[in-house]
Amino acid sequence: MSEEKKQNIHFLGTYFDRDLVLKLAQWARILSWVGAAIYFLAWLISFGQFLYQLSSGMIYTKGLTFIDLLSYFPPYLLTPLQGVLFFFALQGIAAVMLILMDVEENSRRAARTR
């Protein structure tokens, strides 16, 4: 019986630890959902507070025009936008890390076949 020893070839194009990249990508995905939930809850609470103040008369509306009332809304539009950008940024970072890992694996496979 002949036993072949498989050579452990170290590919010089490896710049990172595979398990660490997978963990980082998973944590980026988890934190993107946590961040999106926090932004959504913050927006929901602040918008609800604004509606309550407007309906109870805490915001003085006498002489307030429609254009003046629109000036109250930009923070309520920007908070969800920031949450969406945060979510997609972290999801994109996770995807890019996995894509780079695939590129490295394909490079390693191509180096073996030469």
Features:
114 residues, 3 helices
CA distance, first residue to last residue: 29 Å
Instruction: Report the sheet-strand fraction.
Output: under 5%
Kindly name the structural category: mainly alpha
Order of helices and strands: HHH
Number of helices: 3
Low-pLDDT stretches are none
The major pleated sheet works out as:
none
Mean pLDDT: 82
Helical content band = over 70%
Q: Tell me the Rg in angstroms.
A: 26 Å
Described by the principal axes of the CA atoms, the overall outline is rod-shaped
In total, the number of strands is 0
Written account of the structure:
The chain has 114 residues and is mainly alpha-helical. 74% of the residues lie in helices and 0% in strands. The chain contains 3 helices and no strands. It is rod-shaped and about 80 Å long. The two termini are 29 Å apart. The mean pLDDT is 82.
